[in-house]
Design a protein that fits this description.
single chain; about 625 residues; globular
Amino acid sequence: MIVGSMMTAFGQAWLDKAVIDGRVDSVWNAIDLPQAFTGNGVIIGVTDWGFDYSHPVFYDTTMMHYRVLRAWDQFKTSGPAPDGFNYGTEYNGPEELLTARCDTSNCYDYNYHGTHCASIAAGGGAGTVYRGVAPDAELLFASLYLDSLSRVMDAWNWMYNVAQQEGKRLIISSSWGLYYADNMDGTGALAEEMQRLTDLGVVFVVSAGNNGDVNFHVKHEFTEPEDTMRTRFLFATGSADLWGSSLTMMNSANSPFEFALNVMDGNYQTIVETPFIPTANNDGYVDTFVVVNGDTLVFNYDIQSCNAYNQAPVVRLRVKYTNAYKLGLAVTAPAGTFHAWNVAEVTKAYGNWGAEFQAPAVHPDWVAGDNEYGISTPSNIDCCISVAAHVKRQMNPSGAFSGGEIADFSSSGPGFHNIRKPEISAPGKNIVAAINSYTTSFTGTYKKRIEFNGRTYGFAALSGTSMSCPFVAGVAALGLEANPYFSPGQGKSILTGTAYNDTYTAEAGIDRFGYGKVDAYNAVREALRQVGIEDHTESLETRYAVFPNPASGSCFLTAQTQSENVTCGLYDLSGRLLQTEILHSGVNMLSLNNLVPGCYLLRINDDNQIVTKKIIVQ
């Protein structure tokens, strides 16, 4: 199941209305700005599935320029794979992409989710009002194979490599999440790789998850050696592919625990309880069963007695669905803060929607579930921007306002290790955007259909943090166009520092909204203010030129200036200053010998007026 793919009746938060909620329209209209910003010169990479490469929203607003650079379908086996990888199929350039038409059928059939998300981030509108936030940004699509986290990291690195070749800043938008990948405290292999790429200048924007309206989490403090926590867990509903439940369990670092399954009758009286299974020195996977009154209850578990990244015992317990009995979980430990999450386990694709933990009335000492600590991986990783969803505020035909509240499904924090998660909110309920015209799985209602090149293409409403995530990715692209050399950390600070708050954010609190609602206009203004781009003038821009570009070894920078105090700083895409030169009028040689191939930025300060030049080092 995809984070945020819930279909709802359209009409309350169309994409054209959502951009007003996020003040994107003020950026497009250049209100008190030196120019309009539309994401030009920035690449947004979308990791998802269900991409319609031929959809006209992926042209610019004039319908003349096709903006998808490449796509990597990790499911398709015909090849060729991207350079440096040995699986999947890469499409490079308009001819290959438009000939391929869409990504292949996979565990989600011919899906539609990726098209919708990419349309929100950077759709050109195709002549409709459903224009994305950054309609001039270029796009990369990676159809993910989530069976392996290494393939997620491969997609990130492929996108980074392409962005380096193009010499442009990269934002990766991920509208998906899992509750059993890496660690729920935001540590693990994904976190390490995301941080590495963040340090290289990649901005990650990730949906927070859609379990804010379900009590799928339990927490318990073990303080006594004989203490035992008990809770009932339910099975999720809503999928014909449901296998059962997946319970992720974690205790404090170096604090082993034991767990058991409790099988009960309709009155919550125990019929069978399995032996307690220890985590200490018990690493590995076990597939087993328990016989209950002649029936067989199948379950399996995978134990990490000491996770390599956080030294915590971590267990994934999967229990096959049964409607014959009520099931409970028993956990005992001498110490530690214990957490567990209960989500769907499905036979097809990936389950991430939650099911409840309960405390039956006949067992008042059992632990009931809550909706806390609900941010899924990879949104729980510190360096990414974790996005919640709210209902956009709009004026109704009567003149009254509605909306503004948190979307009930939007997952709740807090985050672990005193990290605020989620960090920002954007419109995410009933957002109308493009749908894959080749889909075999969409069953909703189309808001609009258009004809293009002899084919019908549609727009429809979806709800979820999947929709709010690409909205924020688009806002980040507007900011990076305004200031192409702020670091990902600075970008997060700009977005969260300019987020606005109102009665709804005060009522729901930081665990639902983070720092507040995204404000594209003030984010762009802050990006401009930080680097003085307000002072850019065309005459100043033309005084400086870099050649050759791309370059290797060295390059030359010509300067036409009357000032005797002109400095030039060379930055990498993380915003790190690598070297500084004093410039004189005429030709200046800059050494590039110590630089690895990639994209860099020259920041020229001429009497407190700033000029930025990109340079590609080969």
